[in-house]
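Annotated sample (chain length 146).
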Amino acid sequence: MGSALAEGLVDAQWCPPNELAVVETSVEQRDALAERLPGVAVIASLEIEHVDQTSGVVICVKPSTLKPWREWRRAGATRLLSVVAGLSTARIEVTLPLPIAVIRSMPNTPVLVRKGVSAIAGGAHVTKDDLDWAESILGALARSSA
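Output written by the structure step:
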């Protein structure tokens, strides 16, 4: 789901490729993603230089491979869009050292071909701007009304 989301954002020109970073721990997967996503930073771990203070972090991993949330918070993220299956917004919020806007979504499989439908739910610290940010991301993978 993560690579489909990244590819969809690049295809939809949601942002310039050099403003997008993808974290992938597997060297083989990192090389493959770098080839498929020219101009996108495909990195092994998230560092502060990869997070714009006005942007956020999108997490798309299997729950069993999830690293501690503090890594994203230390990098300066102020909002988090989680599409991690089986991990509630409340559980994410209690693991973070400071309040952060957590938005939870579970996109359906058609996002793979940019025909997806997603619902979003905001956590305790979410503002309308945070929800608009999440909607803009998921909307890049959505079914067109045209």
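Annotation: The mean pLDDT is 77.
Annotation: The radius of gyration is 14 Å.
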